[in-house]
Write a structure and sequence with these properties.
- The model has no long low-confidence stretch (mean pLDDT about 95).
- The radius of gyration is 20 Å and the shape is globular.
- A hairpin with a 2-residue loop joins strand 7 and strand 8.
- The chain has eleven helices and 19 strands.
- Helices cover about 25% and strands about 25% of the residues.
- Bound molecules: zinc ion (2 copies).
Length: about 375
């Protein structure tokens, strides 16, 4: 079939809307008609080259939901007409990691930067080239073909433009708080960086029963949004927050710091380590440039205060159980999804949406397809 997609031809260039030729789904694959796709920061990391794909051109987008239009041979988990969320990491259900309840580390995740189908070939073709897919799903197109490992069936009553959000940002943020840093009732939690992921880290901490949720973000708009999602205190920088945290915790400092900034750097990690106290956990979720190795840490303090640094992918979650769980929390009115979408865009307006992200004028932009 013929459709359109937002394509990256070279690092540093804008997304370009191109004619896309899409092949039929093969063994184990499904054709999905997407309703919406979130504009996540990770695609911006790809665009600027912080997180390069194996090859270009590539179709961006890894946060989407839609309806299964057709299934290839051997597909068992979904059928035509099913509503699905696309998960940005596949969960095969059979590998070691899936078997021990760590679907976010599924062996099939190795293919996400390759961006081809699991058999190593492409269904997406642009201008005579095979197109790679962000996270093997490529949601910056009204249609895509993906492996059934990358789709999670959901109930039909959830609006698909809201469901799309749980394919990355919501589950990542919630899980960073609840699973990564294991936030508990009464805790003091610092969330560094309030955008699509950070706002949901705030929500996760709130739902887990944190007593104080301290949001740190230089952008006034983001701090204001943090309050809507449950932050109790807002500061522009870690330096500004340090003394108030000492006072409100009687010097014990925070139980957890969640790093959900735009781009992780050495200073943010040092700041996060400095705001937690004894036994404090620092969950690192925001992506860093692939070549970042330079981080200054108070090593003795890490040891004698038993502080912990925790890498956190997809919020340490299991997409097949956590995606439906997020949507149940939404249905129950506990998890806010409607409020996350600052503005919606058409596919043609995608670069405008990313410009709003870069200038801190949206929490989450959302592409809507007809
Ligand atoms: Zn994402
Ligand atoms: Zn697996």
């Amino acid at each position: 079939m013929q459709t359109k997609a937002a394509v990256l031809w070279d690092y540093g260039r804008d997304w370009e809307i191109e004619e896309l030729t899409l092949d039929d789904p093969r063994e184990g694959e499904v054709l999905v008609r997407l309703a919406a796709s979130g504009l996540c920061h990770s695609d911006e990391h790809v665009r600027v080259g912080d997180l390069p794909m194996e090859a270009l051109p590539a179709i961006g987008g890894h946060e989407g939901a839609g309806v299964v239009e057709a299934v290839g041979p051997g597909v068992r988990s979904v059928a035509e007409g099913d509503h699905v969320v696309l998960a940005f990491i596949p969960a095969c259900g059979k590998c070691h990691w899936c078997a021990i309840g760590r679907e976010n580390l599924c062996e099939k995740g190795a293919g996400t930067q390759v961006g081809l189908q699991q058999d190593g070939t492409a269904r997406h073709h642009v201008g005579g080239h095979d197109a790679r897919l962000m996270c093997q799903i490529g949601t910056f197109s009204p249609y895509t073909v993906v492996n059934e490992d990358s789709v999670v069936k959901i109930d039909d009553d959830i609006p698909l433009d809201k469901a799309a959000l749980v394919g990355c940002g919501v589950t990542t943020g919630f899980g960073t708080a609840v699973y990564g840093a294991e936030v508990g009732a009464g805790d003091t939690v610092v969330v560094m960086g309030i955008c699509g992921v950070g706002a949901n880290a705030v929500q996760g901490a709130r739902i887990a029963g944190a007593a104080r949720i301290i949001a740190i973000d230089p952008a006034p708009f983001n701090r204001e949004m943090a309050g809507k999602f449950g932050a109790t205190h807002m500061y522009a920088s870690a330096e500004e927050a340090l003394e108030p945290i000492q006072e409100m915790t009687r010097g014990e400092m925070a139980n957890a710091a969640l790093v959900t900034v735009d781009v992780t750097n050495g200073k943010v990690i040092s700041d996060a380590v400095s705001v937690v106290g004894k036994g404090g956990k620092v969950a690192l979720t925001a992506l860093a440039p692939y070549n970042l190795t330079d981080v200054q840490l108070p090593v003795l303090e890490l040891i004698v205060y038993e502080k912990r640094l925790i890498g956190c992918l997809f919020g340490h979650s299991n997409p097949r159980s956590d995606i439906p769980k997020m949507l149940q929390l939404y249905r129950d009115g506990k998890l806010l999804l409607d409020e996350l979408v600052t503005r919606t865009y058409t596919l043609d307006q995608i670069n405008e949406g990313y410009e709003a992200m870069r200038t801190h004028n949206n929490i989450r932009g959302m592409l809507l397809y007809d």
